[in-house]
Amino acid sequence: MILDDDSDVHDPDLAARFSALDSLTPPDLTAIVAASAPVGPHPASGLAGRFRTSRPWLIGGMAAVALLVVAGVAAVVVNQTNDQTVAAAPEGAASPTVDPVESDADETDEADRAESAESAAAGTSIEPDETDDAAPGTVSLPEQSATTTTTEQAGNAGADSSGTDAEETTVPTPSLPPPESTTTIDPLETTTSFRQIFPGPDVETVTVAGLVTEVFHDCVSWLRLRDDDSGEITPAGALMCDGGSWVVIDGVRIRTSSGFVPLDLFYDKHPAELLPGMSAAAIAVDEGALGLTLRCNDCSIATIKPSHSPDG
Amino acid sequence: MTDVETVYRRDHERLWRSLVAYAGDPEIATEAEAEAFTQVLARGAEVTDPAAWVWRAAFRIANGLLAVKRSGATPLPTSGDGATLPASEVVIDHSLAEFLDLLQTLSNQQRMVVVLRYAGGLKPVEIADVLDTTAGAVRVQLHRAHDQLRERIDA
C-alpha cells in the first residue's frame, strides 16, 4: 500500500537536527580555480571553464596507467605474445580523463553488495512494530495456547545465516525432527517463492507452537487477535513498507519472509491462509538480532488446528 | 542559462550540505560536488537529467573519497595544483559535529537516504531516482535509519 504523503518518513526531531547544517556556508565552487586545465567543460554550458578540479591523485593515476601502458607495449614487443595487452593499452592511454564516477560506482556497488548481505543477516527488513504506524500494544495471549518451544540442535554450528551461507546454492537437506506437537499438522504450509537455499544441516532450529496472535503479511494487512479475548480479529493498521512478513505464535514473533532484500537473498514462507486465532507450529532459526526467521532450508510453518475463523 | 547552471544555482547549497552530512567532512563534500559538476559539464548532452546525475555522481564520488580516506592509503585530494578549497574554512560547531559523527554510525545506504531526505529535502521518490532504486526501498531504509538514530540519540 502506498501512502499518499511522506509524513511517515519525516521525523521532526531529525529535521531540526539537520537544520543545523544551514549554518554552514557552502563554498562557491565556480571560484575554485585550479592551475591545471579544466576537465572537459562542455562548450554549450554557461559554466564551461569555470569549474576546475583539484585532483592530483587523478593525474598520478593517469601517470601510472601510462607507465603500465609503456611497460605492456614493451613486453609485447619483446615477447610478441600478448596481443591483447597491446590492443587494450592505447585505449587506456588515449583516454583524456579517468571517470571517477564509473570507478567509484564499482566501489560503491561492491560496498552496497556487502552492505546488502550484511543487512540481510542483521535485519534487512523493517521491524514493523518499530515503525511509526505500528501500534504499541501488541497483543500476546500465551496463556491460551498449548505451547511448545524447544530448541533442536541438529549440528555443531549455530544459526548463522550470514550472506556467506546465503550464497550457497545447494545444501543437503537435514533430517529434522517434526515439531513437538501431539496434534495433527494441517499441511497449510505454502512455500511460495523460496528462491535461495539458506542454512542447512548444521543449523540450530527452534520449534515454536501455539496460538497465532498476529499475522503481518506484506506490510499491507496486519491482523491481530483482540486482547479482550473475544476471539475477534481486528485490523491493527496497515503499513507501507517492504519489511517482510511475520507472525506471532505464542507471543514469539517469527519472520516469515525477508522483505526488501536483493533478489538472491529473498525468501518467503508466509502462508497466506494463516490467521490470528489459529494454532500453528513453526520450525525457525534464531538469527540473533533479527530474531526468529524461517530463513533456512527446513524452516516451515503449518497450522495445528484451526481454533478460530474470522467467519465463525 | 543551461540546465547544468540551473541545477547548480538551485541545488548547490542543498547538495553540498547533504554531502557534508554524508561524509562528515566539508573537504570531501566540496571535492565531490566540484567533481560531479565538472563531469556533468564534460558530458554535455549525454546527460539527460543533469540534476539526478549530479546528485548521484556527487555521492558516488564522495563515497569513493571516503573509502580512500578510511583506508589511509592515499591522501585526500588537496589543493596541490594551486586551487584553494574553500571548505577548509568551514567551521563546524561541537553539537553539529556530534550529530555528523552520529550519522557516520549508520550504514552507507541508510545514511545516504536520511541525508538526502533531511539535508537534501528530497522526497522518497526523488531519492529513489538519485539512488536508482524504488521509493518503497527508500522508505524502508528511512524507517530503519529513523529507528537507529532515535535509539542512539536516546542512549
SSE layout:
The complex is a heterodimer of chains A (about 300) and B (about 160).
Chain A: H1 12-18, H2 56-79, H3 83-94, H4 100-122, E1 148-153, H5 163-166, E2 204-217, E3 221-225, E4 233-235, E5 245-249, E6 252-257, E7 279-286, E8 292-293, E9 300-305
Helix pairs in contact in A: 2-3
Chain B: H1 3-23, H2 26-43, H3 50-71, H4 94-103, H5 108-118, H6 124-131, H7 135-154
Can you offer a commentary on this structure?
The complex is a heterodimer of chains A (312) and B (155). With 312 residues, chain A is of the alpha+beta class. Helix content of chain A is 22%, strand content 18%. Chain A has five helices and nine strands. A five-stranded mixed β-barrel of chain A has the order 2-5-6-8-7. In chain A, a hairpin with a 5-residue loop joins strand 7 and strand 8 (292-293). In chain A, 38% of the residues are buried. Chain B is an all-alpha fold. Chain B is 71% helix and 0% strand. Chain B is built from seven helices and no strands. The N and C termini of chain B lie far apart (49 Å). Residues 73-87 of chain B have low confidence and may be disordered. The chains are: A alpha+beta (312), B mainly alpha (155). Chains A and B meet through helix 1 and helix 4 of A and helix 1, helix 2, helix 3, helix 4 and helix 5 of B.
- What best-fitting shape of chain A do the alpha-carbon axes yield? elongated
Average pLDDT figure of chain A: 54
The separation of the N and C termini of chain B measures 49 Å
Stretches of chain A where pLDDT falls below 50 for ≥5 residues? 33-63, 76-200, 237-242, 307-312
Number of helices of chain B: 7
Radius of gyration of chain A, whole Å: 28 Å
Helix/strand structural class of chain B: mainly alpha
Order of helices and strands of chain B: HHHHHHH
The count of β-strands of chain A is 9
Could you state the order of secondary-structure elements of chain A as H and E? HHHHEHEEEEEEEE
